[in-house]
Amino acid sequence: MTLAVFADGVENPANLDRIEDAAHLIGATCAQTISGRLIAIENSRGARSVYGRNPLNGAATIAVGNERRGLSRRILDRADETLVIPTMSRTISTLNVAAAAAVAGWYVVRGSAAQALAARPEHRRPALLIVGDDHVEVGSTLRSAAAFGFHDVLLEDRDAGWFEGTAAARREARAAARRHKNPLRIHRADLRSATRFEEIVLVSAFGAAPPLRREPLNRGQRQLVVIGATLDEVSNVAADRLRVATLGLMPMEHAPLRLVASIALAEIARQVGRRRPTPGRPAPRPPTYEIALELASAGETRLVDPSELIAY
After folding, report:
1. What is the CA radius of gyration of the chain?
2. Which helix (DSSP H) or strand (DSSP E) does residue 62 occupy?
3. Using CA atoms, how far apart are residues 140 and 137, in angstroms rounded to an integer?
4. Which residues contact 103 (CB under 8 A, 6 or more apart)?
5. Which segments of 133-228 does DSSP mark as H helices, in order?
6. Fold exhibited by the domain 2-110
7. CB 67 within 8 A of CB 35
8. pLDDT tens-digit profile of 163-222?
9. Domains 2-110 and 119-275 belong to one CATH topology
10. How is the chain split into domains, by residue range?
11. CATH level 3 topology of 119-275
């Protein structure tokens, strides 16, 4: 099994760096060319879910696209398969491109069961505590939390600047979180908040622990999932009710929070599930993702001088 990640038109150098980190964490490489089976990651009509797949067998390349436009038509037309990362929000329907690469790669490599169906999935969603010290990583993580259906998040801000940072840091963090359309309620907290919960699951990026996909993550608000803290830190607060689960990623120093958190949040969303259709009632219409603008041919266009518009 070999996997490569291809960035199609990604513009932000910081995102390119994080895509390289994502490739390392999932045991893949970043590639400038496509080899093996091409798997496009895109919210497009007819795309299959990343959930409910067998583990990767053979060579493949996953392609992620531009921050605004997504994948190019050339890549979509060439793809052997198109996958979508299911989201649970009407307003935040995409992840940061590097986070999307990490989530898609993790599920393509490992496979998983299908997403659950539940009568009231909102009652199965656990509480969430994010611990972060970088404003952009925290912002991107909050974007993922909203996309995967969370309405409230506890945040321990370790000088990340979300609550009291400089104006520039707060602007960058909120832009990364898509705050203008992100309804997530963010509550200032610290690890002592964990004592209020009956069960605590600490997510570890790598190391010796049971796999996260085998840990029940659908016990509702009596359960707290902690991402971004160390075992020693949580053990000092609530060792008697703590379990540790690992994502099984490749070790690296300072694994980016947005990548680790987005994979964990995707797995929570898979286990919590979507609302089960009610017999006799039409299912909620899913969001439709289509390219709204396409380049017209030369014969179909006309150049208009601004003075003509003013005169008109």
Report:
1. 21
2. strand 59-65
3. 5
4. 50, 85, 95, 262, 263, 266
5. 135-147, 167-176
6. Alpha/beta knot (3.40.1280)
7. no
8. 998 999 999 999 999 999 999 999 999 999 999 999 999 999 999 999 999 999 999 999
9. yes
10. 2-110, 119-275
11. Alpha/beta knot (3.40.1280)
